[in-house]
Amino acid sequence: MAVSLKIGTRGSQLALWQANWVKASLEKGHAGLAMELVTIKTKGDKILDVPLAKVGGKGLFVKEIEEALLDGRIDLAVHSMKDMPGEIPPGLCIGPVPQREMPLDVLISAHGEKLADLKQGASIGTSSLRRSAQLKHLRPDLQITGLRGNLDTRLRKLDEGQMDAIVLAAAGIRRLGLENRVSEYLDPDHMLPAVAQGALCIEIRESDSETDRLVSILNHPETRTVVLGERAFLHRLEGSCQIPVAGYGTLEEGNFTIKGLVANLDGTKVIQATATGTAQRARAVGIELAEELLARGADRILEELTAG
Q1: What is the pLDDT of residue 61?
Q2: Identified catalytic residue from 71, 75, 83, 105
Q3: What is the pTM of this model?
Q4: Residue 238's pLDDT is what?
Q5: Is 22 helix (H, G, I), strand (E, B) or coil?
Q6: Which domains does the chain have, with CATH numbers?
Q7: Low-confidence ranges of the chain (pLDDT < 70)
């Protein structure tokens, strides 16, 4: 057995919680295994005054960590799966996928109001084009305010009165024990989550069979099936932070069902559909859903967004 493993992670409170959870789980599963956290600052952590969509696509929060993994400075990386680009760099792969936390989005409002009860023209903070487009589709009167920074920073801006409400991932709120701040868990019929939201990604080197063996105890087969089906959907759409794309899969009685959505930036065009198949065909089902959305007009939305 390896004497120790180095885990690469971002330095935010949530990222450290996730990495420490992986560390504790592996130490519990392998007596004598020592783990060390290596904190790495990514481009997404350094540029906080520019909207994500203008800085670049997915990969903003993983590239520097992946470089450390490739050159051997770390043995595995812990990411939020929703931050992972569709393409994994050569030499790396997604290892085990732990059991998913709640994948929904939450609304946290200044005075506890639910989305439907917010005043006309209320300001909502979010850095996500996916959330922004769906909010505008539901409530065209809302004013969307750009919101970057870690979870603490976002909550502080709300508390300072800079906006009336914010939308965040339920997973981060729950992992940090902040459920008391939640005003509303948003129904996925109204706010479809990001692909793989709530899931962790354990990334390793393809050639590192020993680390693969050690971390395999973290795998949750059902979560892995669903997440890889969602990622296949995203990859076919070549999704990034620059386009409003959402996808949410579920597994029930051996069948995989995924609902997907593509929208334009102002939420006036929203194309969505659902696809179902056996769990064994999860990736193929994800691709089929993407093809259906493209055939129904998502291709034109994506062309307009990428051209702009």
Answers
A1: 75
A2: 83
A3: 0.90
A4: 79
A5: helix
A6: 1-98+199-219 (3.40.190.10), 105-185 (3.40.190.10), 221-308 (3.30.160.40)
A7: 1-3, 43-60, 239-241, 308
Beta strand ranges found along the chain (DSSP E): 4-9, 34-39, 76-80, 92-94, 105-109, 123-125, 143-145, 165-169, 184-185, 200-205, 245-252, 255-263, 270-278
Q: Quick one: which of 240, 246, 304, 267 has its CA closest to 133?
A: 267
CA angle 121, 127, 133 (to 5 degrees): 60
Is 159 catalytic? The answer is no
Q: Please name the residue that has the structure tokens 């989005």.
A: 105
Task: Give the residue among 244, 249, 255 at the shortest CA–CA distance from 232.
Answer: 249
Tally Cβ neighbours within 10 Å of residue 196. Answer: 28
Quickly count: other Cβ atoms within 10 Å of residue 211's Cβ: 17
Three-class secondary structure of residue 90 per DSSP: coil
| Terminal-residue alpha carbon distance, the chain | 52
Burial bucket for residue 291 (CB in 10 Å: 0-12, 13-18, 19+): middle
Give the model's pLDDT for residue 152.
Answer: 87
